[in-house]
Amino acid sequence: MRGGRRGSGPWAVAAWTLAITLPLAFLALFFLWPVVSLIATGFVADGRLDLSGIPEVFGSARTWHVIGQTLAQASLATVLSVALGVPAAFVLYRLDFPGRTVLQGLMTIPFVLPTVVVGVAFSAVLGPGGPLAALGLERSLTAVIVALAFFNVTVVARTVGTFWARLDESASHAAQVMGASPVRAWLTVTLPALGPALASAAALVFLFCSTSFGIVLILGGREFANVETEIYRMTVQFLDLRGAAVLSLAQFALVAAVLVVSARLRSAGERAVQLLPDGPSLRRPTLRDVPVLAVFAATIVLLHAAPILTLAARSLRDSSGEWSVANYVALVQPPQEFPLSGSVLSAIWLSCRIAFVAALIAMVLGILIALVLSRRPASATARRGQSLFDALVMLPLGVSAVTLGFGLLLTMHRPLGIGLDLRTSAALIPIAQALVALPLVVRILLPVLRGIDPYLRFAATTLGAAPLVVLRTIDLPLLGRSAGLALGFAFAASLGEFGATSFLVRPGEQTLPVAVAELISHQAPGAYGAGLAGAVVLGMVTAGAMLIAERLRIDRSALGSRASGSWAGSRAEW
User: Fold this and answer.
1) Cβ contacts of residue 180 below 8 Å, gap of 6+?
2) Is 294 exposed, middle or buried (0-12, 13-18, 19+ CB in 10 A)?
3) What is the pTM of this model?
4) Where are the transmembrane segments (predicted)?
């Protein structure tokens, strides 16, 4: 009784109310208001509702071409990512070999590399002077699809791999004993069992691909534009807010549909995992695994390593093709004609400071959101509210970063009556970047909290533990391992954010992604080479942040032991 009263007292109610209202207020002020305001601007003329833009935009052949390109790019990139990601999942999560854990960590780097870096890397391979320039693929659908797969093979490998690692394959072994070949057993038994994880991964990859901005802008051009880059072109080049608003609504409808499908598939996958025991131990590779190992090796070498190594090599050549560090010198001492407002060192320092603030904001809000979503309310109404809360948190993943950035510019002139024009300060950049990183943080932290046995919390509360004590001794210690990884992801995602930042960056203060994008598109002699060098520097900083995050992660078993010891000591005191 005492535990029940303490667990439901006014302090507990106030704490959970704060955990819900603080993220909601942040999302309402800095996400919903700017996005809705921008869309409303496109549908209001002379103070009246004007929907004439809908038939005008959808009556244009250009609109349907862009929508078709978006669906084609996302669909083909999803198929390629799944085809290459499943072998990677098998190798990394079912086989045992030296360096497997290191490879698992390295496979996270492609996902967090800035889109500007990857776009420039593929441009260095396929563009003029590149090793594959003769193929003429620089501005092509193929280039866009392969570059999108560069990011998303990792998503498939991790999503399917973590599911596969816990899959009981006794049914597959039984099928082989009864005469089925390994391939047939995999197709008829294992593949259907992996269905929920495959479908969930495919839905997420489709979402990421359909809202890609930097890759399509650099490699696709106007001919292979998607909805995201078309919104950018309408707002920046033509100030066509009505057309941009209509396209934003179309993109929002697509994203909402994908999020609903993804949420249902993820829920089905979670239920399936809970019904299965821990998977069998890893096994050593055999001769029959050679084809899968070959596909995995080709993915690592050709898809991931080759573009990055080509980018690094070309950044070390001057305009005459000689080996030189002139491009890096130009970043430190930029010529007058370069579109840089200072050296690359100042851009790196500014980018890191902004990304650090954004990561802290995303972590604070993400921990609060994950704590709320990890609870299992008894009321059906509360469960529906929890689902709506989850959906709202995920929305920034699929809403155009261009729409968000431009919306912030429209609404942040003395918001809520405060005497500060946020548009003239750098404060909006970390806010926008935190919105981009927040869903990733939640998705990393939430499975850990949901995996905690609810009876452990119940027992603690029954014995008299206050809610804050339960959080301190059970939830937060077990969250430590994933918190380091989430912080690394948030920092890396914020560091490389380009879409919204390109709107919000102030004159004279460029972040590194913006500086790289301006250099590679500038006509000044040596600017392209300096852009390649800047992309290398940005990639190294991002990869370094992820590797540090991996090193700082606390071993989960140690955390479990510490949590148990802390809980035992607290229990003795009670």
Assistant:
1) 188
2) exposed
3) 0.81
4) 12-33, 71-93, 105-129, 141-165, 241-261, 290-313, 354-373, 393-412, 424-449, 455-471, 483-505, 525-549
